[in-house]
Amino acid sequence: MIHWGTGTQKDSQNIRVSKSWQSYVDTNLLGAGLKQATIIGAAGGSWAASAGFKLAPEEEKALIANFANPANASATGILANKVKYLTLKADPRSIYGKQGAGGIVCVKTVQAIIVGVYDQTLQPGAAATVVEKLADYLIDSGF
């Protein structure tokens, strides 16, 4: 069984349902090995974030615009929490970037954008799986 969050309720797939957006960040993202993470609304505004990780309003706007025009992400890179990442992949659902030994994974759901930052202790594929899996769960839940 996969344990998602700290709540006691379970959905039809026997996955535990978190009681707050912060628990998604703390348990599902940081708990899975990401260094930093945030969830913002698809139109902007922070829903939850790890300590010390915040997207500036202009960074949020640029990220939202990159999902609308993924070719732009490839041309300009990704800026998150004042760190610039080289874009590795960009499409209307997912944007991946690299910076040094780590990187960033951004995935858009219907109502949110999940951003996860990883360092050298987590493989890029594992980081992508963590963020993409949470995005799939939120999409299935209507978010």
CATH topology: Beta-Lactamase
Strand order, sheet with most strands? 2-1-7-6-5-4-3
How would you spell out the order of helices and strands? HEEHHEEEEEH
**How much of the residues is beta strand, in percent?**
25-35%
Number of strands: 7
Instruction: Please give the radius of gyration in angstroms.
Output: 14 Å
Low-confidence sequence ranges: 1-18
Gist of the model:
Keywords: Actin-binding, Cytoplasm, Cytoskeleton. The chain has 143 residues and is α+β, with helices and mostly antiparallel strands. The protein has helices at 21-29, 57-68, 70-76, 124-140; strands at 36-41, 46-49, 78-80, 83-90, 94-99, 102-108, 112-118.
Describe what this molecule looks like in 3D.
The structure is a single chain. The chain is of the alpha+beta class and 143 residues long. It has one domain (21-140): Dynein light chain 2a, cytoplasmic (Beta-Lactamase). It has four helices and seven strands; from the N terminus they run H-E-E-H-H-E-E-E-E-E-H. It has a seven-stranded antiparallel beta sheet with strand order 2-1-7-6-5-4-3, with helices on both faces. A hairpin with a 3-residue loop joins strand 6 and strand 7 (112-118). The protein is globular. 35% of the residues are buried.
What tags apply to this protein structure?
alpha+beta, Beta-Lactamase, 31% helix, seven-stranded antiparallel β-sheet, 143 residues, 29% strand, PFN, myosin I heavy chain binding, 4 helices, PFN_euk, actin-binding
